[in-house]
Amino acid sequence: MKKSTFNTLLMKRDSGSWSPTLSPGKTRKDGAPRSVWTLAVLFISVQVIFAAPPQMPRFRFENFTTANGLPDNHVFSVLADGERIWAGTEDGLAVYENHAWKSYNTKDGLAHRAVLSLALDKRTGDVWAGTMGGLSRVSAGRIDTYTQLNSGLSNDVVYGVSVEGENVWVATAAGGCRFNTRTGQWTLYNERNTPMAEIWVYAVSAAPDKVYYGVWGSGLLEYNQKTARWDKYDDPDGENEMVLFKDQGLIHEIVTSVSYVDNIAWVATYFGASRYDGRYWHNFLAKDSGLPSNFINTIKGTDANRAWFGTDKGLAYYDGVNWAVYRPSLKDGKPEMTVRDAQGNVTPVDVTTAPAHNYILGLDFQGDDIWVATAKGLSHGIRQKQ
Amino acid sequence: MRLSLRTAIGTGLAALGTALVVSALWPTVDHPVRAEQENAQEYASPLEVLLSPDDARLYVLCQQSKEVRVLDAASFAVIKSIAVGTMPRGFSLSPDGARLFVTNAWDDTLSVIDTHAMSVTATWPVGAEPSSVVADRAGKRLFVANRISGDVAVLDAKTGTEEKRLLAGRGASYLTISPDGGRIYATHIYPNPSRVRSDLDNRTAPESEITVIDAGRAVVVDRIPLHSIAGVFHLALSSDGRLGAVAEYHPKNLVPLAHLEHGGAFAYTLTIFGADVGMPVEVPLDELERYSSQPFGVAIAADKSRLYVTLGGSESVLVIDIPRLLRFIHTHPRPASGSFAQDLSASANYVVARISVGHNPRGLALTSDGHRLFVANRLEDTISVIDTRTHRVASTITLAGPKEISAIRRGEQTFYTSRYSFQGQIGCSSCHIDSTFDGLTWDLEPDGFGRDIVDNKMIEGIKDTEPYKWNGGNPNIPTECGPRTEKYFWRSENYDNLTLADLAVYVRNLDPRPNRWRQPNGEFTPEQERGQALFTRATDKFGKPIPESNRCSYCHSGPKGTNQKLFDVGTRKPTDNSGMLKSAPLDGIALTAPYLHDGSAHTLEEIWTVYNPEDKHGRTNDLTKDELNDLIEYLRTR
To answer: What average pLDDT score do residues B155-184 get?
Structure first.
């Protein structure tokens, strides 16, 4: 191991309180014998060489399918609401409560059987469900549905939904919308009143200061709630799928998911991920990060430094330095967890469970636990003490 | 104006004169001359009553005189009158009785009254048409039911700052807090939107709900469904919290409104819920020969022996023996629907008295010992004091106000009473709740059974929009309210000409409520401005001229949004006798879903997204979705 690497490791493990090692053969000012220091350095070196991988969250995954109550195995979205878990599936909206699933479908007033996105109004407890046939509001068992025919909703295909205050922000196949629940007014955002070049809006993340729209093929749109102004962020490489300028802007134009937390926009695309702090971009690619794939369906930041990624090759977690991947092995389907440290060292972790499938479509957190929507079932990752 | 009428010739004489003029000229003339100038604000119109925690004071909410009158509950002497806002509709005390909260429905404000000083200490802006208010037991929050926005606002009880709004039923109006303070129950006067599109072959029974709110967390935790109910009013809970009862209308609008003597148009019922009954159950108040029209207020005696219901249309108070009611519920096989509403013999099992009171009794309050029941007679300016041990009116408190009864007042009494209909089944206000509408479609007999399904219209601002009915068949209000109503609805007693003239005067004087979509400064928002341009445009987006008759602003012209002519806008259904319909006024259109003559459009959007495929209802198919949204934003300002 090179000294520089060693020193770097020491610094990181010491949380930045870097103490330079002394050269052999010299006496310290405190008069400690040289041999003691030699032994100490040797001890530390051995520790580093055989160090355990970084401590990353471990889970025991319990998986739900139609066999144990889920209405459909194709799960697009998941939402944790206290003790309740909502799952948007291809055949209805399911809620898990008191160890039992209950399903809602079109006969109950749901806009469409395929539920693509979910959002919780934390103030009221209402759940907003974006479907292939409109937007539904689920409030204590009552379902009110908004469609492009019966309301101001721009399009019935609702890919994303986010609640902020009294406004519900919606991402649709024909632009974005804002529905004011107090006034009933709909405001539409499309190519006519925003810098949106395409109107296939895939994702939305709203906060009191800013709202981000992820647009399939038109980058990331930022709406400043105070000034009512729009900004647009594009891939500086244009439509070139080679990354010529890695950290100079959004990683790709095809944005599939966005999560705005702690003033940081975490952005997922089909060709990598980006982190944007309002000034600087940092991009993540499978080749130089712990991402298992550049094809990312969903992203969720937990704070400014940590985020979860749902890819087509498993679930990934980034703690600001290290990465962890959770999935059924791509080779044999056996449960697999790997940890990648800052130097790129990948270490397998012995696990007995994994998410239901590698194709991850949605995720949410329930305390320390994680819920994962996959193409073949819903997974509950129960955090294990380490 | 007020003084001149009162001092010159007397309101009553003026009204009588007007009525005579109208009756003499009717049906050729529909223009009452003097009565329209009468100022109805003089009457107290007590809507709700409330007792202080120690039963010493009686608070009376006077809707038309815009005040709370504080009476000594023993001597009935007026202690003070406290002015509040316009159209006060609901009030309640803080848990300690120190503050009285009043919702001013047309001002969109909440008056806070210090009950010691007996003065208003604050007036807070709240939601659209606040209609009821309750405070939580901790004194931290207020809950306000907003009728227009159909929600319950959660306010900071000290500052009035709104924290959030909870989705309630359409026309949210009445709130009740449980005795333990844990739950708040909200009811609503218009049915919730139907889940299915109401084409003729899939008209559905109305659905309403009791919205159950966790008072501590301020979130909705349950919705008790009320099937086939449209019009839900006050709710009461027993002191042990195990029994709840809510007053409601059960319309029979899916079958032809044929003969009142053969089944009627409404059942008037209570839904009983809580631990004492298990699953909620609907029980009728009507009797075999006598209906219990328009139940409104409900009170339950502390010892759970009696339940009292005011009947606004029947001008009486119903007394129910609760043990007998529970025995009936538990011993009779419950229908699968959970409703006994069709069983007119049921009420004989538990209704023990019917006490006549004044015109349009509404709110009621029971003393702690259960011995005295105060009932607000809204259209008589009196409070009936009922001795509950004898089931008799022990005394009647007359509230200060004009002694003369104006034509408008008489007309309003006629509007709200059910005395003219067979067995006292219905009054105008059974369908026009609080002089508005009911959100339902009806199959009225004169067009033939199963023919011409019609949406019930809002009647505010109806003046000078003749002809009436969707097909324009009635040339004036006396025709609309007189022979047609008598023949097809009442099936009993005809109005005399004076009564009809008074009724017409009242209906003509129903002004539209304030429009909440207009900005206070009178200017349009950019969306409304763009929508107005679309409303008045003469060329479409391709530059082609739009024929005058196909412009929005042609048929919906003038201050009321109607040129009063008939058109075929392509909305005729196979069961309609004609496609020719009068252009509908636009006044208050944001409030009055569903739309089109048969209520087939659930929302304003559906008028054009679903029911205008050939651009016969105005040229609109060239509009983008955001342009249609702009048009609707403009229409909401009408």
So the answer is: 98
Among the residues of chain A, which ranges form H helices?
Answer: 3-13, 34-49
Strand partners, B99: B114
Residue B549 and residue A323: Cα distance in Å, rounded? Answer: 68
**DSSP E strands: which ranges in A41-99?**
58-64, 75-81, 84-89, 92-97
Does the distance separating the beta carbons of A152 and B605 come in below 8 Å? yes
Q: Which residues of A353-375 are buried (b: 16+ CB within 10 A; e: fewer)?
A: bbbbbbbbbbbbebeebbbbbbb
- The CATH code for residues A58-384 is 2.130.10.10
Q: What are the pLDDT digits (tens) for B75-104?
A: 999 999 999 999 999 999 999 999 999 999
Could you give the ipTM of this predicted complex? Answer: 0.90
B518 SS3 class: coil
Give me the sign of the Cα torsion angle B615, B621, B625, B630.
negative
DSSP for B569-612 reads -S---TT-S-SEEEPPP-TTGGG--SBSTTS-BSSHHHHHHTS-
In one-letter notation, the amino acid at residue A297 is N
List the A296-301 sheet strands across, edge first: A296-301, A307-311, A314-318, A323-328, A335-340, A346-349
Q: How many CA atoms lie within 13 A of A216 on its CB side?
A: 15
Give the domains, in start order, of chain B with CATH numbers.
2-40+407-508 (1.10.760), 526-635 (1.10.760.10)
> CA B545, B546, B550 angle in degrees (round to 5)?
165
Q: Show Cβ contacts of residue A47 under 8 Å, excluding neighbours closer than 6 positions.
A: none
Residues of chain B in contact with residue A142, where contact means CB-CB under 8 angstroms, are 167, 192, 209, 223
Tokens of B345: 């013999």
B319 vs B313: CA distance, rounded Å: 16
Block residue for tokens 């080679």: A242
Nearest C-alpha neighbor of B568 from the set B624, B606, B615, B535: B615
State the smallest CA–CA distance between residue A152 and chain B in angstroms: 6
The alpha carbon of residue A150 is apart from the nearest alpha carbon of chain B, in Å, by 5
Is B625:A152 a contact under the CB 8 Å cutoff?
A: yes
For B604-632, write each residue's pLDDT tens digit. Answer: 999 999 999 999 999 999 999 999 999 99
**CB-CB under 8 Å, A125 with B219:** yes
Q: Which tokens hold the place of B506?
A: 């009242």
Which strands make up the sheet holding B183-188, listed edge to edge? B172-177, B183-188, B207-214, B219-227
| Domain residue spans of chain A | 3-49, 58-384
The DSSP-derived string for B240-277 is: TSS-EEEEEEEE-TTS-B--GGGT-SEEEEEEEEETTT
Q: Which two tokens stand for residue B241?
A: 């919290």
CB pairs under 8 A between A and B: 77
Residues of chain A found within 8 Å of residue B625, distances taken between Cβ atoms: 148, 152, 154-155, 174, 188
**How many of the other CB atoms lie within 10 Å of CB of B345?**
10
Residue B545 is given by DSSP the state B
Rounded to the nearest 10 degrees, how much is the dihedral formed by the CA atoms of B466, B467, B469, B472? -150
pLDDT, tens digit (0-9, with 9 covering 90-100), for B335-360: 999 999 989 899 999 999 999 999 99
pLDDT level of residue A246 (50, 70, 90 thresholds):
confident
Question: For the sheet containing A201-206, what is the strand order?
Answer: A201-206, A210-215, A219-224, A229-233
